[in-house]
């Protein structure tokens, strides 16, 4: 599963042509930030799971 701080790849690229996003908030909604242009998007958990392609970098909690 995904967690706060993970870098994920979405199915469709952002307008700035990158596909990598960082998860910056989790709850009922999930907020992600584009790693190229820093644009922030908030999605419902259901929409996020539907649009998620894969997890690129998994943050390890200590």
The major pleated sheet works out as: 5 strands, antiparallel
The parts where pLDDT drops under 50 for at least 5 residues are none
The percentage helix is 10-25%
What structural class do the secondary elements suggest? mainly beta
Order of SSEs: EEEEHE
**What do the pLDDT scores average to?**
94
As a whole number of angstroms, the C-alpha radius of gyration is: 11 Å
Assembly type of the chains comes to: single chain
End-to-end separation in angstroms reads 17 Å
Content of β-strand:
over 45%
State the strand order across the main sheet. Answer: 4-3-2-1-5
Supply the number of structural domains: 1
Q: What sort of overall outline do the alpha carbons produce when their principal axes are compared? A: globular
The total beta strand count reads: 5
In words, what does this structure look like?
A 5-stranded antiparallel β-sheet has the order 4-3-2-1-5. The chain has one domain. With 62 residues, the chain is mainly beta. It has one helix at residues 45-51, and strands at residues 7-10, 20-26, 29-34, 40-44, 52-57. This is DUF951 domain-containing protein. It comes from Vagococcus intermedius.
In short:
This is DUF951 domain-containing protein. By secondary structure, this protein is mainly beta.
List the helices and strands and how they pair.
Blueprint: E1 7-10, E2 20-26, E3 29-34, E4 40-44, H1 45-51, E5 52-57
Antiparallel strand pairs: 1-2, 1-5, 2-3, 3-4
Organism: Vagococcus intermedius
Pfam families: DUF951
Protein name: DUF951 domain-containing protein
Features:
single chain, 62 residues, mainly beta, five-stranded antiparallel beta sheet, 11% helix, globular
């Amino acid at each position: 599963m995904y967690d706060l701080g993970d870098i994920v790849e979405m199915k469709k690229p952002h307008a700035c042509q990158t596909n990598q996003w960082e998860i910056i908030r989790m709850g009922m909604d999930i907020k992600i930030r584009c790693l190229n242009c820093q644009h922030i998007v908030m999605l419902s958990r259901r929409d996020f799971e539907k649009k998620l392609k894969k997890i690129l970098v998994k943050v390890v909690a200590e």
